[in-house]
Specification:
The protein is an alpha/beta fold and 417 residues long. It has two domains: 107 residues, no CATH class; 295 residues, 3-Layer(aba) Sandwich (Rossmann fold). Helix content is 50%, strand content 12%. The protein contains 16 helices and eight strands. β7, α14 and β8 form a beta-alpha-beta unit. The radius of gyration is 26 Å and the shape is globular. InterPro entries: AB_hydrolase_1, AB_hydrolase_fold. This is AB hydrolase-1 domain-containing protein.
Length: 417
């Protein structure tokens, strides 16, 4: 128990210790044991508890007539003020000892957020399909690519901050977000080609690709960068990767016989449609989305209505269910064709891995393996879950703002673009 809580009555201590909020504050997440967001919350708890403690302490005195504040008695001499002052000083000392800087805390508390627009921002026609994207700022361009089930709005806390120094694009991949729910055969190369054409037709200059999540955004950024050797100057992956392995060892598809083609395959498809149809209906329920997000956000403070709405709205599209079925039956089953070994072997630009070490799906061991395979890799480890850019956006923004200038200094000619 910290010194700031040492003076609290037992009833207050038990109430705090029994609460989920207090236990989350003391969850072992880093060497310091306290994130900036938790610090802000803990400060509120401590201040509130201080007032409670002073009230509890003052009541017996009033009843016994031992202490009565004169009408014009200054507040800063009162027991309430002294107790609050004591708690605040202890809290400040704890922050200084933990190594956190008050300036960073203030910058986080004032972090800007991309306004949510139900109608979207900008649209681009690609292969006769409607593609949504956001663009803000001026300068060297950065392209943000969301993960599976998300959209450009998932970068809500990153776009405004990065746009103060760079021109930031956030793209909705085909079939996701506010982009068209096209009824096509989805494959990793579809999104690769979309990003490649986006860079050529919209960005029109060298850029950096940033992708989140292992299934979609991160892998799309890698395969697009491998194709755009001269136009992509760096890649950033946030808890995203594919699978290591030899694509040539993937089992070859055997030729179908009559029974498989006309009996087993149709029955399998019927079962898949019924089962996946139910899964999709369940997956798009707000309560289910909130539950899944909270399971991968170590600190779920940013799992709010904005985030949930940005996921549920695209799922209401009439074609969303069919797109989900095609993604789960075609795209997922074909993922083994594309391995990290083959893609990283074609990459030539610097790679930054910003990794939430507490991710329940993709642990930090994957980041270390990528660095072993591709030496041009830098790693920034964060005490966060699967979506660090939205859970601890201030730290991800700082990592990007620290790393991006190294690309510009390594290639001075880019500064004039």
């Amino acid at each position: 128990m910290t010194a700031s809580c040492a003076t609290l009555p037992n009833s207050v201590k038990l109430e705090l210790l029994g609460s989920k909020s207090f236990s989350r504050l003391h969850h072992h997440r880093s060497r310091c044991g306290l994130s900036r967001r938790d610090f802000a919350f803990k400060g509120i708890v401590a201040a509130g508890a201080s007032v409670m403690a002073s009230t509890v302490a003052a009541e017996p005195s009033k009843a016994q007539g031992k202490f009565r504040r004169p009408p014009h008695f200054p507040f800063f001499f009162s027991p309430e003020f002294l107790l609050i002052n004591y708690c605040v000083r202890n809290l400040v000392c704890e922050i200084l000892i933990s190594g956190y800087h008050m300036g960073l805390l203030l910058s986080y508390l004032g972090l800007e957020k991309l306004p949510f627009k139900p109608e979207g921002y900008n649209y681009w026609t690609w292969r006769d399909r409607k593609i949504h994207y956001v663009v803000e700022g001026e300068g060297f361009p950065i392209v943000l690519i969301h993960g599976f089930g998300a959209s450009a709005f998932h970068w809500r806390y990153n776009i405004p901050e990065l746009a103060k120094n760079y021109k930031v694009y956030a793209l909705d991949l085909l079939g996701f977000g506010w982009s068209e729910k096209a009824l096509i055969e989805y494959d990793a190369l579809v999104w690769r080609d979309q990003v490649v054409d986006f860079v050529k037709e919209i960005v029109k200059e060298p850029t950096v690709l940033v992708g989140n999540r292992q299934v979609l955004g991160g892998f799309t950024a890698l395969v697009a960068a491998a194709l755009l050797q001269d136009q992509v100057k760096g890649v950033v992956l946030l808890n995203s990767a594919g699978q290591f392995g030899d694509a040539s060892t993937a089992p070859a598809e055997s030729e179908e016989n009559v029974l498989q083609k006309f009996v087993l395959k149709p029955l399998k498809e019927i079962f898949q449609r019924v089962f996946l149809g139910f899964l999709f209906w369940q997956a798009k329920q707000p309560a289910r989305i909130e539950s899944v997000l909270k399971s991968v956000y170590i600190n779920a403070a940013n799992v709010d209505d904005y985030l949930i709405d940005s996921i549920t709205r695209p799922a209401d599209d009439p074609n969303a269910g069919e797109v989900y079925y095609r993604l789960m039956t075609r795209f997922m089953s074909n993922q083994r064709k594309y391995t990290l070994d083959s893609v990283l072997s074609q990459l030539s630009c610097p790679l930054l891995l910003v990794w939430g070490d507490l991710d329940p799906w993709v642990g930090p061991a994957k980041a270390l393996r990528i660095k072993e395979f591709y030496p041009q890799t830098s790693i920034v480890n964060l005490q966060a879950g699967h979506c660090p850019h939205d859970e601890v956006p201030e730290l991800v923004n700082m990592a990007l703002l620290d790393w991006l200038p190294t690309l510009l200094s390594a290639a001075p000619s880019l500064q004039s673009l």
